[in-house]
Amino acid sequence: MEKLSLSTKCWMINRANYSSQGKPVFLRRLISMVGAFLLLCLFYAGIEAERKPVTAKGESSIKIIKSPDIPLKGIIIPKLTQVLKIDPGQYDRIDMPLISDAFKDNYGSIYLLDGKNCRIHKFNASGKYQNSFLSRGAGPGELNQYPSIFICKNSLYAHGVQDKKIIQFDLQGKVLMEKKFLKFYLEPFIIDDKQFIASDDLELTENPIKRVGLYSLETERLENIIMESKERGRIFIPFGKSRVAVEPEVGIIPDTMVKVDIPAKKCYIALNNEYKIYLKDFSGKTEMIIEKGFQPVELSTENKNSVISGFGDVPAEAKTLLLKVLPDKMCAFRGIDILDGAYLSVERFIDYNKYVLDIFDKNGRFIFVIHPPGIKGLKVFKIFKDKLIAIVEEEDSDTYIEYRIDNLPKELY
Fold first, then answer.
1. Which of 374, 304, 378, 383 is nearest to 347 (CA)?
2. Is the domain of 89 the same as that of 34?
């Protein structure tokens, strides 16, 4: 309103000056019309500014995007057509699969991760079983427990935190490289044959500092600190006279999450105790910060007992303490991912074990919300190009189901 008053005042002064100089009437009317037009521009500019996310630039030219509560382009409730279903349990060569994650490569092949048994099962784009690789153990091509995997270019990487090892496979399952680390790393990403990005703890205490850094693949020398934070995602419970560190399922305890965009040489680092995501280059320079409000989800006693059951056999005394230690509210989100076209997907909690996908474009604008499909027994769902890939828990085994999303905007794939 102050800008509006100031503009009006300037226009009135100019009009008075022209009148005192005896200018023709039509010129005074023209000036009046121009003034009115400028006032309307200011008014509508104010309305448009309220609809768009607020972008501010700090002293170091960092773009800070404060996202609105409502996505700019709409809410998507997926309309699905099933195009593929795989039941790994029907194959004799696959022993009691417990599928914890699913991935696709650019050729359409599907990789199902059995985290408990440390196995990866490959199927072609038509759903035909190809082969299985990775196994449980301490030898070459083996990991001991719950590996994480990711696909980059024409390689698949499997990492075991406790094993302190990462294995590179080609897409047929042949071991190409195996790196034994000197210390524990979280979420290592091999970005080329000389460097990797990973998280590690600077101090093994109740409040360790989590550092995301760029390291030499050969020597593990730290080359760049990308970011440091205090969010680690672990709690300590008493076990006899000692204490044991446990990591609850994602989203219960605040954690720092990392996702690397290797082609763009950028990485997203997210703090899920608040809704805050940093876009940084590999030198550690911050280019953009995305901020968004959220409504915390309450954790009931039943929910907490469900979390504790994931720790295995917990003594009664420790269980009582855990019920007090676990927070009453969940974090903002459970994970982040990078979709095609450098779109960022954030898995935001809407209830215990239920989440939606918040989609941001490469400029950090909050553009879509994708709701979960109403599939019974749904454990995991992801977006891959124009497909929704889902892991569904059924009576006998976990099943992979792939759907075409008929109403997915083309800009997302």
1. 383
2. no
